């Protein structure tokens, strides 16, 4: 009977370690996801360098989707 109790306690410890590892992984992944979303939103705004390539619509210009 004592052997079964020790095996159950060891299994419980192993499961606790696995669950704690999964929880830690999910917290780290959540932090990464927040950081990645922030970096994507931060770089979504156009810089002055990119605005210099913006196509301006002039008079008499034919837009390609209206041909």
Structure, explained:
- About 65% of the residues lie in helices and about 0% in strands.
- The chain is mostly helical.
- The longest helix has about 40 residues, at about 1-40.
- The chain is rod-shaped, with a radius of gyration of 29 Å.
Give a concise summary.
The chain has 67 residues and is mainly alpha-helical.
Secondary-structure map:
Blueprint: H1 2-42, H2 48-51
Features:
67 residues, mainly alpha
Query: In oligomeric terms, what are we looking at?
Result: single chain
Distance between the termini: 85 Å
Biggest sheet character: none
| Number of DSSP E strands | 0
Structural class based on helices, strands and sheet pairing = mainly alpha
Mean pLDDT, nearest integer? 83
Based on CA atoms alone, the radius of gyration comes out at 29 Å
**What percent strand?**
under 5%
Task: Give the CA-based shape.
Answer: rod-shaped
Give the low-pLDDT segments: none
Helical content (DSSP H or I, runs of 4+):
55-70%
Reading the helices and strands in chain order gives HH
């Amino acid at each position: 009977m004592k052997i079964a109790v020790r095996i159950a306690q060891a299994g419980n410890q192993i499961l606790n370690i696995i669950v704690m590892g999964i929880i830690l992984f999910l917290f780290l992944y959540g932090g990464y996801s927040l950081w990645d979303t922030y970096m994507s939103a931060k770089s979504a705004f156009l810089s002055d360098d990119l605005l210099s390539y913006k196509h301006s619509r002039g008079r008499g210009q034919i837009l390609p989707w209206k041909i």
